[in-house]
Amino acid sequence: MAKEVKFSLVFRDMWQSAGKYQPRVDQLVKVAPAIIKMGCFDRVETNGGGFEQVNLLYGENPNRSVREWTKPFHEAGIQTHMLDRALNALRMSPCPKDLRQLFYKVKKAQGTDITRIFCGLNDTRNIIPSIHYAKAAGMIAQASLCMTHSPIHTVKYYVDLAKELIDAGADEICLKDMAGIGRPDSLGKIVAGIKAYKKDIVVQYHSHSGPGFNMASILEVCKNGCDYVDTAVAPLAWGTGHADIIAVQEMLKDAGFKVKEINMEAYMEVRSQIQEMMDDFLGYYCPELNRINNALLVKPGLPGGMMGSLMTDLEENLASLNKWKVKHGEKELSTDELLIKLCHPDGEGQGALVDDCRHHLGHDSRQGWSPAWTCGS
After folding, report:
1. Residue 159, domain CATH
2. Residue 238's closest CA among 251, 248, 227?
3. What three-state secondary structure class fits 216?
4. H or E stretch including 197?
């Protein structure tokens, strides 16, 4: 019998990866029936990360937004999942234990089934307590392996990490390839190692398409036992976002996997509604550069969600940086030069960019600096 691979629509991450803000609750509720009618999704990413905070941009109550957004999916039998930052919950700074415990109870009550727990440094001391808190609240605890590529981040490193999280009670494992720089062959071996340790553990693969690996990676993880794949819908697919559901479904079907069919009429409706949201005003926060793949992202490993916000802010940041340079008699940077400094790891690469920013902010010492992309996104 053919192995079945199921699909998740990462609706929140599509927006964060493309730009800066997400839709209003009325827009979310309007598009939900069309997403359901597509018929191919067993899961939908509903909230998490910065989703609820940015709803405040419209003066909306984020708690109401989550409840209204998850309701139609529950009624249709589709699971909802969210992203959380372990020690930080939904915040960008650590939370006390009692707040973290309450956090999962609230999310469950609001209609979120699965929580994707991650620590950008893969520190199990941050992840494991959240596994216990989530399960105690009745949620499915999906523990993440934050993927990167380095001499220490080997197949064995990730398989051993997964084993520790499974032994701690994780219901599922997510390969969170937030920068899309996981190499396909290695990712496949990681999934195989996890399945060899616990055959029935659910594995979900999340990746961003920016560097160009992720279609090959999706095929490799599925060949080695992956159960769920995160996908997107145009016009928020590809680039710093995720692979489009159509391409993923066709690729896996051709490879012999059992996959659900896509109602193309509903797909076009979802696509049209997303375009309407962008035409309304969200498109102003979705830079064109985020629509294309960029192999420069292979080396620095910047997360797709981070690139979405970065490119939105780049023009303003560049103007501020150049103002400082002019004041100090230095040559101004073009957008391309800034991107090269950011994305190229050698010579005039990350170190040079960090030095520019450090001087601009009045910091002259390397001591105490930590790269922002360790947070993941």
Report:
1. 3.20.20.70
2. 248
3. helix
4. helix 184-197
Tokens of 172: 């599922």
Least confident segment among 27-41, 55-69, 118-132, 155-169: 55-69
Distances (CA, A) of 53 to 12, 14, 173, 333: 12, 16, 26, 33
Is 1 part of any domain? no
H helices of 38-182, in order, are: 51-55, 62-75, 97-110, 124-136, 155-167
pTM: 0.83
User: What CA–CA distances, in Å, run from 65 to 56, 323, 325, 363?
Assistant: 10, 40, 44, 41
Q: Which domain holds residue 329?
A: 291-375
Q: How far apart are CA 149 and CA 275, in angstroms?
A: 35
Q: Is the pLDDT of residue 199 over 50?
A: yes
Tell me the per-residue pLDDT of 44-58, one tens digit each, with 9 for 90 and over. 998 765 555 555 667
DSSP 224-291: TT--EEEEB-TTSBSTTSB-BHHHHHHHHHHTT-B-----HHHHHHHHHHHHHHHHHTGGGGS-GGGG
Is 181 in contact with 148 (CB distance < 8 Å)? yes
Strand pairing of 202-207 and 172-177? parallel
Residue 197 within any structural domain of the chain:
yes
Q: Verify cis geometry, omega within 30 degrees of 0, for the bond prior to 235.
A: yes
Q: How far is Cα 104 from Cα 250, in angstroms, rounded to an integer?
A: 36
Q: How far is residue 114's CA from residue 141's CA, in Å, rounded to a whole number?
A: 6
On whether both 254 and 156 belong to a single domain, the answer is: yes
